[in-house]
Design brief:
- By secondary structure, the protein is an all-alpha fold.
- Helix content is 72%, strand content 0%.
- The protein has eleven helices and no strands.
Length: 192
């Protein structure tokens, strides 16, 4: 089969919620058999649009995947697009149980979840993580969602970042600090 043809079929199947039992297994099969990362992404996105059965299928694939692979990243992105607490809980669990930077795909997929106490409870300890990239990602998410903890955590992180940090890590920290300063300034103005 031609990759372009498979991509078109997978996109057509997953473009919207479809009734019927055959769509989820077909998309899950496409995800599991794909060798191309774009096809994996399309299948995972399609599963995310299939409601709870699609999320359950993504959870099954996630449980079978090794850390650090393209399929795992696609599944995490798909779960990040899915609505509901089941997808969130799968991503939180994956973030807590993965090690090192393998936590990032699941954690980054939680980025859009604002005012969610379960996710915010995860972000605060990760903002103090020994891995600067993980910590700066967490501080960035807290600042983006205007959480009260963001300014102090950004300052704490800036004190421990060193010359070995990458330019991306420095940029993320600076963005977090700017957002945190804006938040702190607004808090001072609104709550004298």
């Amino acid at each position: 089969e031609d990759l372009g043809y498979r991509q078109t079929v997978v996109r057509a199947l997953g473009e919207r919620l479809r009734p019927g039992a055959a769509v989820v297994p077909a998309l899950q099969n496409a995800l599991c058999s794909a060798a191309n990362p774009r096809l994996m992404d399309s299948a995972a996105e399609g599963l995310a649009r299939q409601g709870e059965p699609g999320v359950a299928a993504l959870g099954e694939v996630l449980a079978q995947e090794r850390q650090g692979g393209s399929r795992r990243s696609a599944v995490c992105d798909g779960l990040g697009r899915a609505a509901g607490t089941t997808a969130r809980d799968l991503l939180v669990h994956e973030t807590k149980t993965a090690s090192g930077r393998n936590r990032l795909p699941a954690f980054e997929a939680l980025k859009a979840r604002a005012n969610d106490p379960v996710v915010d409870e995860l972000r605060v300890p990760l903002a103090r993580d020994k891995d600067v990239l993980v910590a700066s990602t967490a501080v960035g998410q807290l600042a983006e969602h205007r959480r009260a903890e963001a300014p102090a955590l950004a300052l704490e992180l800036s004190r421990r970042i060193d010359d070995r940090a990458t330019p991306d890590q420095h940029a993320l920290l600076q963005r977090s600090e700017r957002q945190s300063q804006t938040l702190a300034g607004l808090r001072d103005i609104l709550l004298p």
